[in-house]
Write a structure and sequence with these properties.
The protein is of the alpha+beta class. It is built from six helices and five strands, in the order E-H-H-E-E-E-H-E-H-H-H.
Amino acid sequence: MLEFKKVPLDVRPLFESYISQSGQKGSECAFSNLYVWRDCYNIFWCEYKNFLLLKVKRHGEAFYIQPFGGKDEDLPEVMRELIADNNGEPLSMHGIYEDTKERFERVLPGLEYEDDRDNWDYIYLREKLATLGGRKLHGQKNHFNA
């Protein structure tokens, strides 16, 4: 049985050791984001079979972030445990990058994937963000000026 708990500051080195192995650079892969948003998004964590598992509860719905670490041969058991933690309901997992998708397809073929454009990360050029110049950032500049 998985025992998820709140994210305290002192687990940063542990999180970073798992997440750095993945090479992922998304916002859900940064300890600072996970820590800052831990209460708003009800972010919980646990370790199981040398995997870092992250669970998010938002608006009464639970979803999981891609598992970090672990060995491929343990992934099916980890997924069974996540399904059990989700009361047998199908899993919703966010933050799946190409490397993770390839791993899942290799170890757990037949999963369904759906792009969620509303939650893709975005990048601003430092110069544009500093000046809020240009048409694309006009709305942000008006908001700031107000």
